[in-house]
Write a structure and sequence with these properties.
alpha/beta, about 140 residues, RbsD-like fold, 6 strands, 4 helices
């Protein structure tokens, strides 16, 4: 047991976050996402919602400041997004990173392409439609001497 690590962060997820480098991406996928067919590195977080995972990850993880650090899937033609999904994520994100912007929205197939090159995919228990979120890792700022 480690102090200061959120209980939703498994040893495997902690190791994965530590192994990631600047610019690497991790996907917090909803329970419907076809993770196994898009990336060989799958971590299971069944029953754990993405907001809970964000609360555990963001104190440990610097978001990229050079490129869009948050990416979500846009609705397919004729479909609608539930705005509360993004709002719930942003309430947690802004609690940890107040100056984080809103997620960039990309089409489903572009999202799948990003999934193929992501460092890892975390399969969550979130069942919200279009609930997938990409986090791009940044560099921890070094204080000036």
């Amino acid at each position: 047991m480690l102090k200061g690590i959120h209980p939703a962060i498994s040893p495997e997820l902690l190791k994965t976050l530590a192994e990631m480098g600047h610019g690497d991406e991790i996907i917090l996928a909803d329970a419907h996402f076809p993770g196994q067919s898009h990336n060989p590195r799958i971590l299971r977080a069944d029953g754990i919602g993405i907001p809970t995972l964000l609360n555990g990850i963001l104190p440990l993880f610097e978001l990229d400041s050079y490129a869009a650090p948050l990416v979500m899937m846009e609705a397919a033609e004729g479909d609608q997004l539930n705005p509360s999904v993004e709002e719930n994520y942003l309430s947690v994100i802004h609690a940890h990173v107040p100056d984080a912007g809103t997620p960039l929205r990309i089409d489903r197939f572009a999202f799948y392409e990003r999934a193929r090159s992501a460092f890892a995919i975390v399969m969550s228990g979130t069942t919200a439609k279009y609930g997938n979120l990409i986090l791009k890792k940044g560099v921890i700022p070094v204080p000036s001497p």
